[in-house]
Input
Amino acid sequence: MNQSLGTEARPLRVAIIGAGPAGFYAAEGLLKQKDLVCSIDFFNRFPTPFGLVRDGVAPDHQSIKSVTRIYDRIASDPRVRYFGNVTFGTDVKHEDLKPLYDQIIYAVGAQADRRMGIPGEDLAGSFPATAFVGWYNGHPDYRDINFDLTHERAIVVGNGNVAMDVTRILAMPPDRLATTDIADHALEQLRRSNVREVVVLGRRGPAQAAFTHAEIKEFGELEDVDILVNPETMELDEHSLASLETNKTAAKNVDTLRSYTTQQQHTAKHRIQLRFLTSPVEIIGTNGKVAAVRVEHNRLVLTESGALRARGTGQFETIEAGLVLRSVGYRSTPLKGVPFDEYTYTISNVAGRVTTMAEGDPIPGEYVVGWAKRGPSGIIGTNKPDAYATVTAMIDDLYKLSGISDTNRDPDKIIALLRERNIDYVTYEQWKILDQFEVARGTQQGRPRVKITRVPEMLEIIRQEVTS
Output
């Protein structure tokens, strides 16, 4: 037992895997600890930091992206270093970091999507919404996907905020997107889009929808877009009505949805049709491509636990469409050397402490934050108290951590390892070069930034500035 960890004599060495909101809030929580002497190293797969704030937040929601000013301040702290373009599990492994850091935080989010598990889900033209989001945000993994927008109708499955985002992007005028930081390749294709109607399917009723009120209210503010809601679906059952008394967000959502039912004229160029109590049961294809979706109408059933669940009525309908985007949930993916719970799709943990799968015992010095800890729930700000709670556990554990060997405490050891492996890592100062380049291009076009969407091009821009 060594009580000197986190002092001038033995500064606490912390590695954070992932540089999204959860990781930055964890770093902030550590930096705010009084009398704690620490150094923090971020390891991020891409040269670009900020995770979903850059790659997930819709381009027309620029105000949300202003949170990066806080992250920038954190990353600029002299106690923090950033190693971008470094992939955990490939470039550096668990066994590489364990001897060099007293504590490791996994902040890797939920990168994968859940499947619907219905026939035809893998037809061409059927995608997870995460892929579409990544595509229009310039995420390097998705920028080269070809989304067929030649058909007049698209179907979005899900009632969360991501489903609302992709629906809005498909329906809104491209000229409005042209003033945002949407990826150039996406803007170009959206300008040529033939999609005129987006049908949004929710398996439960309006009172159970997961979107925030701001998201659904925004639909009514879209230019040249009609919002269609069947008045019959707004006739709520007694249990749904009762739930509105304690759920203010749901109550506001229902009021807004009811206001859409009063629209008499539908003459706009685009339309969004919000369908509730409807579940896809099959995606129908023609020549290997999406042609339609067979759906079943549902009713709500009160379970013994008091929850309202959707149950099929045996009534079916077929909706023609050329594009299907599913947004039915997200999950984390396993990291090599890190215990992973296949049931919850999260890193195995108790209150942020990573645990073994067999016995559930905490693994000394290993922690998790964000969606990889609690599952895909909440908004960006939710990650702050979540991360702070994990930091509290980390501080509480210091007295029983022996810490790494003093011979491995030199911060330059990780740099030597990366150089030995010829990893072309990107520092935070080098990311700022790319950041300034993107912003400058954006300024020329009256936009917040024009994103570089390929990693080799990012690295080349940085190299040119560094060597000039």
Remarks:
- The radius of gyration is 24 Å.
- The CA atoms of residues 234 and 255 lie 9 Å apart.
